[in-house]
Amino acid sequence: MKNKLLVFSGNANKVLATSICRCLHVKLGDLSVDKFSDGEIRVKINENVRGHDVFIIQSTSYPSNDNLMELLIMIDALKRASAQRITAVLPYFGYARQDRKDQPRVPITAKLVANLLTVAGADRVLTIDLHAGQIQGFFDIPLDHLFAVKIFCDHVKKLGLNGNLVVVSPDVGGIKTARAYAKKLRCGLAIVDKRRIDDKKAEVMHIMGDVRGKHALIVDDMVATAGSLVEAVDAIKKQGALHVYAAITHPVLCGPAIDRLRKCHLKELIVTDTIPIGPEKKLNHIKVLSVASLLAEAIKRIHCEESISVLFASR
């Protein structure tokens, strides 16, 4: 008899977790996550998980530390309740930008988070569009890395831009991802040459590639303060692009991001629901696509011990 599939969620993104359960035709697991009077996180599992295959949906987005601690404590609670296998599903993997020592005496926090998840008791991890691919190697447990490229490309095709579209990488490091989009959309490729001034600001030097008279689609894994995005949009418009779109998986949207996006010449910012967007951040030109069906299919395949390579091999 196959072990029962159970899906639980912390407080980070319950709407997405509910959508995933709807796709899987299962009920969201009964679990309480709140805080003690001193602010410490309290978790209680309200149903039997012994011997079952458990998936926890929890993005480690803002408030990152609370959401990460919730996830670690939920994993520990499930482990102590004798769940057979625990898969941590992180639609958005926080602390991913701290993936190497780019200055003296700084931590590699992405590796620390990987260690914490493993020590807490996670048996495997499922995530989408990591900021840096090498983070996969930080884990000593299986990690399944999915991509949102098909979700975005299906939407872009509906916009009717084919034949007059160019995909733009926001920096040299994103060329591989941009090439995958350009291949699927059968269009040209351009690259923004930029110089990062600090962690909040980047200066665009020039555009490598032809965008004049075309619709441009900037692709990236996350938008935080939107400084780099706005700089890129302005530079592309100055080069004669008709309209500029952006397909960015994780809408972190912190600090001055919303004010910048409100004033920017971006036709449409297409994001996913890996991170929930509050009412105060919803702009008319922000379009949210759901990754629920993608994650649900991956969860189903992991549970049934089937390959999930079909979901990401053909990026």
Walk me through the structure.
With 315 residues, the chain is an alpha/beta fold. The chain is built from 9 helices and 14 strands. It has helices at 14-24, 64-80, 109-120, 149-158, 175-185, 227-238, 257-263, 292-303, 309-312; strands spanning 5-9, 31-35, 41-45, 53-57, 85-90, 124-128, 143-146, 165-169, 188-196, 202-208, 215-223, 244-251, 268-272, 286-289. The strands form 3 sheets. The chain has a 7-stranded mixed β-sheet, with helices on both faces. A 5-stranded parallel β-sheet has the order 1-4-5-6-7, with helices on both faces. It has a two-stranded antiparallel sheet with strand order 2-3. α1 (14-24) crosses α8 and α4 (149-158) crosses α5. The radius of gyration is 20 Å and the shape is globular.
Overview features:
single chain; 315 residues; alpha/beta; five-stranded parallel sheet
